[in-house]
Write a structure and sequence with these properties.
3-stranded antiparallel beta sheet; about 70 residues; two-stranded antiparallel ribbon; alpha+beta; globular; 2 helices
Length: about 70
């Protein structure tokens, strides 16, 4: 999972595990940072490697479009 605290601001930054997008949450509390990411349509999920991962709204939307097209 790529959510880490910025050394300078002491706020959490969420990184997309699919592309280079990131979200600076402006939150110093982990749970508040997760809630901010969720409110901004970021998705946290367990990947095929059984590790937590994050997906930005664009990558989440692209995945959904691919899934709907596969039916």
């Amino acid at each position: 999972m790529t959510i880490e605290k910025d050394k300078d601001t002491q706020c959490y930054v969420v990184h997309c595990d699919t592309c280079t997008e990131h979200l600076e949450t402006e939150e110093a509390d982990f749970e508040a940072a997760r809630a901010t990411a969720k409110a901004k349509r970021w998705r946290a999920y367990i990947g095929p490697d059984k590790e937590w991962a994050n997906s930005c709204p664009s990558c989440t939307s692209d995945f959904g479009k691919r899934q709907r097209g596969a039916r």
